Amino acid sequence: MAHIVAEPCFNCKYTDCVVVCPVECFYEGEAMLFINPDECIDCEACVPECPVEAIFHEDNLPENWKEYVQLNKDMAPIYPVITEKKEPLAGK
Questions:
Q1: Which residues have C-beta within 8 Å of that of residue 3, sequence separation ≥ 6?
Q2: Are 49 and 16 in contact (CB under 8 A)?
Q3: Distance CA 38, CA 11 (A)
Q4: 90: buried, middle or exposed (CB in 10 Å: 19+, 13-18, 0-12)?
Q5: What residue spans define the domains of the chain?
Q6: Closest Cα to residue 9, out of 29, 23, 25, 24?
Q7: Is-above-0.85 flag for pTM?
Q8: In 20-84, which ranges are E strands?
Q9: How confident is the model at residue 89 (pLDDT cuts 50, 70, 90)?
């Protein structure tokens, strides 16, 4: 099991979480971040760093966001890894 970035990150992209990740498993999409579940070690360091509470352990993901499990798995491999904090998207 892994941690998942869910809907609250969409059009937000705070990157506080990426700087605490010891295995660099965050990937930057155009409108949100993704976690590669094959790289996540479930350390939970990222969870308290997310100001919009968008990161969940897969077992605790709200039912209405279950599709984000597959979305993270599919999208992480096609985007570049992100390890440094950046400004969030405009308006956030």
A1: 35, 40, 42, 44, 46, 47, 55, 56, 57, 58
A2: yes
A3: 24
A4: exposed
A5: 3-78
A6: 29
A7: yes
A8: 26-28, 33-35, 55-57
A9: confident
Fold assignment, 3-78? Alpha-Beta Plaits (3.30.70)
In DSSP terms, 35 is beta-bridged to 26
- DSSP H or E segment with residue 55: strand 55-57
The one-letter amino acid at 74: D
Residue 56: strand pairing partners: 4
Q: What is the pLDDT of residues 2-55, one digit of tens each?
A: 999 999 999 998 999 999 999 999 999 999 999 999 999 999 999 999 999 999
